[in-house]
Amino acid sequence: MKLSVGLALCMALATGLHAEVTDNIAIDPKAMALGNAVTADPPGLASIHFNPAGLARIDTDMVDNIFTVASIRNNNTFKAAPDLDIGGFRDDPLSGTSSAGGRQRLTLPIAGLLPWHLPAVALPSLGYAFHQEGSPFTFATLSYMPFYYSLDRSEHANDPGAYDGKVVDIQRLVYASPAVGYKYSDTLRFGVAVPIAYASMTIDTNMRFPNPLLGTIGQLQQGSCPNGNGTVIDTLSFGLCGGGPAGMLNPFQKAASLNLNMSAPFDPTINLGVLWEPSDSFALGAVFQGGTSTTYRGTYEFDTEPMLRQFVGGLNNSLLGPVAAAITGLPQQIPAVQKGNVVSTIPFPSRFQVGLKYKPVSFLQFNFDVSYADWARWNSMTLQFDQNINLLEVAHIFGLANSSQLTLPLGFRSVVNFGAGLQVQASRDLTLRFGYEPRKSSLPASSISLLTPLPDTKLYGAGLEYRMNQGDSLNVGVSYMKGTYNIRARSDCNLNCDGFFNLIYNPYAASNVAGDFIVRYFGMKYSHSF
């Protein structure tokens, strides 16, 4: 009943969380191998993202061919609390079940969400740099994906995770990034880049309402008409059983589903960088990645199961039911399908990162970066539908006045993260790299959902670079990132609270949810002059 409000909130959370946990996973093999601590040692054309000042280190026309593969897995188990009681219902069929790890999907401009259910996603990218000999300027562009988050739980029809995201796919694809690096002196460089992105968000989820209000009504129905068939007395009163057997309420039963597809085809931001290298053994770098207010436009579709539709219909076909519906703001009817257009402006916070490079000896290099993202300024998000949503009208009793619009409080926090890298010059042509990056989530642990099962994580990276005689180079990087969570029943009101007036979506009310979030990455880059 309150699910639509909470589900939209979880959708908003998904947009923010991935920026601190799943960003930078598929941009550059060198960066990933060094734990993304490359602000003071920018990686070729990927400097466009990590520090545009690094472009001024390129002194030839150059091509970067990058190929990356990434997989995301999320395993969960569900166990009802011993004192589970949802308005008299005490047997949750999801208790003791588990959710599969998931597959990946991919969204492309024009084509939209592709139909393939992939064990991993391959992300090729291409970049060019142009430098005229003797000029202090280097111009460049690069296509890349600064963040990617995708989980597809639709492979198994009864996957319990489908009640909090059957398919979730949120991407930001930079298809052009005009940039310039300027060499002010032999030790000081500046850079600016304008990444132009295609941003997309797809959420397809089943919904259920394990809430005491719905459970209490269901118990009243069972007491009045155990077989689900109404009586004359029922018709002359509130019509609780007027919906027939299909209208009997069960808080653990599927009630509806939502499919939401939104995108922003042209979303530019700006990156500003500075790099100071007083010697080969020491460097400082800084980058500012500007925020944006992205306007997403797309479509939605609510599909409501017979349970709620029949219940509301029976209520309004009785003598006193319409009076109760008018007092509580319930709709006169809920269509099986309601779809249309939706618009939402979602702010994306700015980010600042500084880095240090230090070589104590010629063959050994340490990198260290610190970043700050201003998520705390993101206070709310509004979804504007093109019509009143009948399913949302059910929430009028909880204070939702406008069923064509949802303004959602979010409660993000700003976070500080760091990354560290070690680089070893094994020979004249071979460099070995290792990295570590603990990533903090921009929400507290009490706000995790399965739409965004993103706890604090730790990333471990390794890689190598081999330089060829003609000046070409091959970079290879691998990384492994993992975080775990164990959310006790009633401790996370984006997931498992069971209070009578909980407005935030809690599909696993009064259940313990334990899970992990794992990202595996492989990347390869071939750089050569032309």
Q: Briefly, what is this?
A:
With 530 residues, the chain is mainly beta.
Task: Please describe what this structure looks like.
With 530 residues, the protein is mainly β. The protein contains eight helices and 25 strands. The protein has helices at residues 3-21, 29-33, 47-50, 212-224, 232-235, 306-316, 321-328, 390-393; strands spanning 62-80, 98-99, 107-108, 112-113, 121-130, 137-142, 144-152, 167-176, 179-183, 188-193, 196-208, 254-268, 271-279, 282-289, 292-304, 337-348, 351-361, 364-373, 380-385, 405-409, 415-425, 430-439, 457-467, 473-487, 511-529. The strands form three sheets. Strands 1-5-6-9-10-13-14-17-18-21-22-23-24-25 form a 14-stranded antiparallel barrel. The model is unreliable at 1-19 (pLDDT under 50).
Produce the secondary structure layout.
Layout: H1 3-21, H2 29-33, H3 47-50, E1 62-80, E2 98-99, E3 107-108, E4 112-113, E5 121-130, E6 137-142, E7 144-152, E8 167-176, E9 179-183, E10 188-193, E11 196-208, H4 212-224, H5 232-235, E12 254-268, E13 271-279, E14 282-289, E15 292-304, H6 306-316, H7 321-328, E16 337-348, E17 351-361, E18 364-373, E19 380-385, H8 390-393, E20 405-409, E21 415-425, E22 430-439, E23 457-467, E24 473-487, E25 511-529
Antiparallel strand pairs: 1-2, 1-5, 1-25, 3-4, 5-6, 6-9, 7-8, 8-11, 9-10, 10-13, 11-12, 12-15, 13-14, 14-17, 15-16, 16-19, 17-18, 18-21, 19-20, 21-22, 22-23, 23-24, 24-25
